[in-house]
Structure formats: C-alpha cells, structure tokens
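Morning!

This is the sequence you dropped in the shared folder:
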Amino acid sequence: MTGLGRSIRQILIALFYYSGFIGIFGMIYRNISRKPCVLVYHSVSDSENDGRPICISKKMFKKHMFYLKKKFRIISMSDYLKGLSAGRGFFRNSILITIDDGYDDTYRNAFKILKSLELPFTLFLTVNNVTGQKGSLSWDKVRKMVAAGVIIGGHGIAHVDLTSLDEKRMLEEIKGAKQRIEDKTGKTIEAFAFPYSRETERERKALRDCGYFASFTSRPCVFPDNNDIYSISRTVIRDIPVYELAYLLSGIPDLIRGFKEKNAI
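The structure's back. Tokens below.
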C-alpha cells in the first residue's frame, strides 16, 4: 500500500470510529463470537519516534491501556487457560494482553502502566534477553513483576525459528526455556509463544510433551479461529492511534481477510 493509500485508509477508519460505527459493529461481532482477543506488544519505548516497527511509545501504550480498560474485560492467562481447558465460553469483550521478548522497557514502562491500571498481562520471555545489560531485563526485575502477579511464558532461549532447528536443538529451546525460567522465578511455566510465529506439528507436539498447556503464534487474526490450543493466534499491536486499535478489535479486518481468502480459492 502506498503512502497515499495508507493515509486514505486511516482517514476512513477515523471517520468510522468517531461516527460510532466501529464501536457498534464491534460490540455486535464480539457478542456473536464470544472469543477472547489475544494481543501482543513488544517494546514500549520512552521515545515517540523510536523507529522500530515492533515498538510503541509509552504515551501511546498508555492511551491503548486506558481504552482497553474502559471498553473491554481484561483477563489473565490463568483465566484464559482455565476457560480453554474447561471448554466454557468467555465473557463478551474479553481480551488477553501479552508482551514478548524481555526488553527493559517492559519493566520500566509497560509494567508500571499496567500495574497502575490493575490490568493483568503475560510476558513471554526469551531467556538470553535477560542479561541485566542496557536495554534488557534482569532476573531481579522479572521476579519483581512475578511477585506483582505478572505471568511469565516461554519464548525460547535464543529467539530462533524453531522449525529451522534439528530435533535436539529444538527441544533445548523449548524445554530449556521452561526449566530456566522456572528455576529463576519459582513459578510453573504453562504457555509458550513461537519466535517469528513459526511452528509445525513437530513443535506443537514437543510443547505438549514438555508440559506446556498452550502456545501462541502471531498470525493476524484478532479472534482466534481454530480450536488448536497449541496454535492460538495473536495480533501484533504497533504504534497506532486508538481509533485504529478499535478498528482491529471490531472484527472487521478478520471478516475482510476471510472474504479475500475465500475468494482466492
């Protein structure tokens, strides 16, 4: 999409948002779906012009969280997994917030904002990112977040594409991450997020065998559309205005994507 195309798209989304259409449509769609949205953030930067595509500014992240708290029911990973295992429905407008990798600004910015708003979240941690050096978390900070109720999940040891590894190295990434985080936090690790969203049945089976209860991808689907708890879709949220976040959560992008996929066959 060209720069002009993106500008026109944003103007149209803003018009639909401020007219109330997106809010009404989203309420109806989510009431029918009854599936929790699973969101993933990465770095929450102090700068408003960080430049990294996976980054969101602290200022915009705070706006997102105020919007989510006002419009949605934020659930914890524990409640999410209990709901999945019991096969029961979720409350309308349920959302699970996750953050990946282990940047220091997760503690410095995201954690403090979420804690002040009393919003639960899950941190999928890459073990080798926890060095305590500039830009990275330390285990002390991880334990402080855990003590405050943050749930930790696995994200591998070295953040590598698991499908590119041989069996031994793949198992080391999956099992090793679980063991290391459990040793450092004293908490059982129940969920895993695939680095680069790359996974096959081999990796899913390995996770089951290693004692994980669920795993997540980053495929662009706000409302997970399959029943495989070892391949749950999440939507990556970047530095976008609140009206565009509302558009993503309305279900409209999922419907458009489904229509295109159906007609491409």
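Headline: The first strand starts at residue 37 and ends at 41.

More detail when I'm at my desk.
O.
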